[in-house]
Design goal:
Blueprint: E1 7-10, H1 15-26, E2 32-35, H2 43-48, E3 56-58, E4 64-65, H3 68-78, H4 88-110, H5 120-138, H6 151-166, H7 168-173, H8 177-187, H9 190-195
Parallel strand pairs: 1-2
Antiparallel strand pairs: 1-3, 3-4
Helix pairs in contact: 1-3, 1-6, 4-5, 4-6, 5-8
């Protein structure tokens, strides 16, 4: 592995890590991929980013990007062949709404037992209102901000996927035709298939068995 590559600490099913990987893939940014287990985070990752969440990108110059959106913007500002940064200001506003309004309801719906007095049906209903608003947007065009996918679509899609997979039958029964088409298109894309390839869990060099 070349020593001058950025190091990406990731967990395959994390939606934050997914959106970072999607931007890295779109920008053709090569990285050293280090797949981790959330229950056994490697010390190298915790040293780089003590907050202990994925994704984390360690750049060759020693800088550390600890947030998925920061990783996306860093990658795309270097190379953005699909013009995902068009309408960046509007996209960032929509992403912030997802991260601050939708995600808390998603967590309390999907992981209700982790939150005291959380009613999963109530939080599902609140999250559903937000998806309904996205469906209204998508009835006006194939993407959230028009005719072409951009930063907002790529950053929000993994969380809608997680919402849909919590109860697939319920989600499929909702009257969100445009949102369903949008989600299916992203799920079936070659790019999503590429970033969801499985990687072996990374083992720090000192913990690896000696060569025989």
């Amino acid at each position: 592995m070349p020593r001058d590559l950025p190091i990406l600490y990731s967990f395959r099913r994390c939606p934050y890590a997914m959106r970072a990987r999607l931007a890295l893939h779109a920008s053709a940014t090569a990285v050293e991929h280090r797949e981790i287990l959330l229950r056994a985070k490697p010390q190298a990752m915790l040293t780089a980013s003590p907050k202990g969440t994925v994704p984390v990108l360690v750049l060759p110059d020693g800088r550390v990007l600890e947030e998925s959106l920061a990783i996306m913007l860093w990658a795309l500002r270097q190379h953005d062949p699909d013009n995902w940064l068009a309408d960046e200001t509007l996209a960032l506003d929509l992403i912030e709404q997802c991260d601050t309004r939708f995600k808390p309801h998603l967590d309390r719906y999907k992981y209700a037992t982790r939150y005291e007095d959380a009613d999963p049906r109530e939080h599902r209903a609140e999250a559903a209102r937000i998806v309904g608003a996205l469906d209204d947007r998508l009835r006006q065009g194939t993407a959230l901000l028009g005719a072409a996918d951009g930063l907002a679509d790529i950053a929000i899609f993994p969380f809608i996927r997680q919402f849909a997979h919590t109860d697939r039958d319920w989600f499929a029964a909702q009257d969100w035709p445009a949102a369903h088409r949008w989600l299916d298109r992203h799920l079936q894309s070659d790019r999503f298939a590429a970033i969801m390839q499985k990687h072996p869990v990374w083992t720090p060099p000192l913990d690896r068995a000696p060569d025989k």
